[in-house]
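Incident log, support desk, overnight shift.

02:14 A customer reports that sequence design results differ from what the structure should imply. Their input is reproduced verbatim below. On-call engineer (initials T.W.) acknowledged and began investigating.
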């Protein structure tokens, strides 16, 4: 979020909408590449992750696991809110994030009021950030920076979904073989490797996007990505 502000601001100030749009779409795609598998990981591994961190309190872990599963869906939207807020600031719409955050907060309060008695189904946090994300994306579109939603989200989502299925399939066997705590770490490591392979398989890593990352040129060389 921090690294793209100067690039977008410079392109927008020079009225180079094409460059600004490419940068916005690339940044959103990179954020999706990171946030979507994180969300899938929380959805599939909520219980084992809590058992790993709070191994001395298994009862508390069991109670919190369903809640963390629900919060897993919010991970993606939290990342999108952070990034879209930065994009809006870069194009001079500094007050828009304030308004959208207020609206999202209102949604959260309303949903909390309705679902406070059923915490296992309380999706207020995910819904709050989803609303903010949607409003921010609409605002970005209105300033003349349309987003290619299929390119930005479709391929990363496909890779993350495949990783989620893979994680679910290997979770129990690996944990049974390696033990609870070491098993979770092994599952996470194997899932990360599998996700990287899926990104390459669905061609979700364009070279120009990777170059936006810190040391992106070295990463592109390692992955043998060509323009």
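02:41 Re-run completed on a clean worker. Output:
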């Amino acid at each position: 979020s921090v690294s793209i502000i100067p690039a977008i601001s410079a392109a927008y100030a020079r009225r180079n909408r094409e460059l600004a749009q490419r940068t916005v779409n690339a940044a959103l795609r990179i954020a999706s590449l990171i946030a979507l598998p994180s969300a899938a990981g929380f959805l599939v591994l909520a219980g084992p992750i809590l058992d790993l961190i709070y191994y001395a309190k298994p009862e508390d872990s069991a109670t919190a696991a369903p809640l963390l599963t629900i919060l897993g869906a919010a991970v993606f939207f939290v990342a999108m809110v952070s990034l879209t807020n930065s994009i809006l600031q870069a194009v001079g719409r500094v007050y828009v994030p304030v308004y959208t955050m207020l609206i999202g907060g209102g949604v959260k309060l309303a949903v909390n009021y309705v679902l406070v008695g059923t915490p296992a189904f309380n999706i207020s946090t995910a819904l709050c950030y989803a609303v903010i994300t949607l409003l921010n994306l609409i605002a970005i579109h209105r300033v003349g920076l349309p987003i290619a939603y299929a390119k930005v989200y479709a391929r990363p989502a496909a890779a993350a979904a495949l990783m989620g299925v893979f994680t679910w399939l290997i979770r129990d066997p690996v944990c049974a073989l390696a033990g609870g705590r070491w098993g979770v770490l092994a599952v996470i490591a194997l899932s990360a490797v599998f996700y990287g392979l899926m990104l390459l398989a669905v061609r979700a890593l364009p070279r120009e996007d990777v170059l936006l990352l810190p040391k992106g040129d070295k990463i592109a060389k390692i992955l043998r990505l060509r323009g």
